[in-house]
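**Backbone geometry record:**
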Amino acid sequence: MPSILIVDDETIFRTGIKKMIQELDKDWEIVGEARDGIEALEQVDKLQPDAILTDIRMPRMDGIQLQQQMANQFPTVLCVVISGYDDFMYVQQSMRQGAKDYIMKPIERDELDRSLLIMKEKIQQRAEASQQLHTKKREQITRAREQIITGLLCSKLQEKDFDQLASDGIVFKGKWNSCIVLQLDKPSIAEERYNQADPSLFILYLQQLVQEILDRRFTGICCSPTATEVVVIVNHEDCEDAQREMNELAESIRRQVNSLSKMTVTIGVGRTYGKVEDIVQSYQEAQQAFLLRLILGDDQVYQYEGETQIGIAIHDYSTLSLDSIEKAFQDGNTEKLFTQVERFVHKLCQDANSPQYVQQQICKIIIHYCEWANQLRLTKQWLGTDDVRSILLHICSISTKDELSNELGRLLVKLMHTANLNQAQLEPDPIEKTIRFIESHFSEQLTLKNVADTVFLNSAYFSSLFKQRTGISFIDKLNDVRISEAKKRMAYSDQKLVVIATQTGFTSIRHFNRVFKNETGMSPTEYREKHMRNEKEK
């Protein structure tokens, strides 16, 4: 709705004009009245009208002087002058001052309607042009942000990436730049609220809020290189105060986000550098500092403290108890497996002295199960279109204990169900299949694990089941089959013992001799000699 201020020294005239405008075009809002030029300037400053309708002849400051002042102080406000027939030279002067139209006294309704229409069209044109300019500027800033995001993700930023920002008024005048990274703490939001909304809306809200906070004190820009984080690039003129300013800014953002939205964020702060291309280094440092959330908790500001922050591993994950996870996995107990994974991850985070160490150990566990799945040819069924690299990259992007345990638990439970499904589709008696496999592959270097894999059973469970079903261990059965074959070859061929040992799967003649004697009570040589004597006696 366009707005107008009426300026005339006669009250009755102002009242009449006001009534005519209201009758002619209800779109116009009459925001006020003034008795002379001085009062009009005060009202324009206070009310910010789109246009003024002013008489020429007034005390203290007339219409000509008012227009001169308006041109200097409020150049965008449109002006229409009112004059008598004997004031035409003033009309000419007013038009030279920039008046958009003039109306002669006494005012006729058609003339006033025409002037109102001229001003209304002009105001609409300005509004449309302003909106187009705003849209164009927003698109330019968006493109510049996209360039910066690409530079951050590709670890390559250059001066040209900031040229578009400069053309839109965001000029990095200072020599020094630094980064902070922040993410929303999901536990600070009710689960129902988070699940019902688009998660990207939370990040968009944070980006807009942080940009407002940033603009109050600094030159900088916010962007979102990923769907879960907001990155703030800040420009500084003085390096000495830069780090202190960054910490104060980060703490201010943390407090205000909580105050305004009742949500919390965790923030990592990188160091300050003197070259644009080094912003990437500050960004990566902020990410490393941010990962301290994994072991120190949410709703904090973490400053990068150099390589000492990485620390040295306290334990290797194999020294931490994984037996409970393995047992739950073997038992096929989903709830128990999730519980044991959660306990393990929380204990690991508690004992670790760096987030990188936690990530390293979790990745080791995933690789261990990936190798197992690969041996059983279950990887495609387990991971689908994902690959191991993408899984590990996703794990390294997680920065809370709960999310990490949930993701690891989800992966292991899915693998457990995949393996169980495949096992159910196999023949009903895996032990019979195992015995046939041993009898046809005894000459190969068989182990408990790779034979268990052929029937899609966990090695510990397979070992226990095999002994329960056959009354002997897997190794005893394997040795029994090998020795039986060796006896046949010694009895019906003149092959050397070392050849027979190799062909029946023994790693050395010494190993063959020891196992043969344990099985038969005599050495291979004694057995062959005895067999030859018996044959002669027949």
User: Anything to note?
Assistant: The beta strands are 3-7, 29-34, 51-55, 78-83, 101-104, 176-184, 219-223, 229-236, 265-269, 301-303. The two ends are 124 Å apart (CA to CA). The chain has four domains: 3-127, 175-307, 317-425, 430-537.
